[in-house]
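Dear colleague,

As promised, here are the two records you asked about, laid out in our usual form so they can be pasted straight into your sheet.

NAME FIELD: protein one
SEQUENCE, THEN STRUCTURE:
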Amino acid sequence: MIAIEYGTKECQFCYVLRPNRSLSWRQNLWFLAGLCAVTLIGIAPLVAMGFWPVLPFAGLELLLVGAGLYRVMCRCHECEVICVAADSIRIERGRRGPRQRWVIGRAWAQVVLRACPHRWYPSRLLIHAHGHAVEVGRFLVEEERKKLAQDLTHCLRGQVFEP
């Protein structure tokens, strides 16, 4: 998902990129609790009949599902902010705050949408300057990535565009 702010205090254009997520933290916790309840209710008769070794395996399964769900939710809450000022481009990436930060000179910056040679892989959106490249919008769908590349290219050229 791309949100655009025009003419903020520090920059002319500010792009806020976030991945699409279907559930919030609380909804994921409810999902995991429901999955745990269904699993434990399902194996309760087996444990009552004496098949107690099933219990540690079910616990391990729920632990792995919970760890995977936590990892996915952490990645879904990452955010990228691209601020285009008069003389520079600032790219920040992080979850609760900026963990990584790059500042690129606007005069030398170039937006490149590099297609992958294999059809099933997504393209890569890169901002090049002085031999360094920063990839942005890794989590965007292909149409959003193309639109962002077009908007950034117009923005760097100083052209006014309609959202």
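NAME FIELD: protein two
SEQUENCE, THEN STRUCTURE:
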Amino acid sequence: MLTVDYDLLDLRPGATVLDLGCGEGRHAFEAYRRGARVVAVDWGAPEVETTKRWLGAIAEAGEAPAGAHYEVVRGDLLHLPVPDASVDRVIASEVLEHIPDDVRAMAEIARVLKPGGRVAVTVPRFGPERLCWALSDAYHANEGGHVRIYRGGALRARLAVAGLVPGPQHHAHALHAPFWWLRCAVGVERDTAVVRAYHRLLVWDLTRRPWLTRTAERLLDPLIGKSLVVYASRPAGEPAAGALHRTVAAAPERERTPAG
């Protein structure tokens, strides 16, 4: 299930793509299949191992074109293990809402992007997310949970402060918003019959891509899309604010898992 539109990101074969907070690798997989040179980063060791395993399976199955490459890195998003101005594209999907110092994280994104490079940032949309918070503390108030809810204008302003130029935006995953409202209403840990039935609907939509649910989501995304996606670029020929003003600090020890 992809949140980022790769055409709006302008992802091309041979591009170096940094997938931040990659989780179990869904965006890294698609970038790799499109011929990119992917560096997937996450702090969680299980997520790193899962992403590495699935990228290896994609390579073995011959689903990635010649020239595609991947590397999976266990790293801190506030001290990215990447040189200045070294990547063409960055994906930061559903991760900034977990980071207390999101200003520093955005500055790091600006630092590693090449001039003319582009980033896709996705976060939970304000309205659907605010309702989840109102219905359930357990949804967000836990270790590693969501620490803020972004309004679109605030997110764009913070990206601009980091030295990036916000561009197009859209919403995604409207069918998932009612699912999470339902889970929050009944208890996020409760596995009720209604929750299971809605989950089966989402799995059916994901695996079969039927016309009915695809059309419904396309129409509902502008109204209740669960995620907000903002695309931004680093101006060509200008140093990013994050690169000029970031705090110099030693990066923590990281686990690197090269392959591909």
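A couple of things worth noting about protein two: The beta strands are 16-20, 37-42, 69-74, 87-93, 113-124, 165-172, 227-233, 255-259. Confidence is low (pLDDT under 50) at residues 242-260.

Best,
R.
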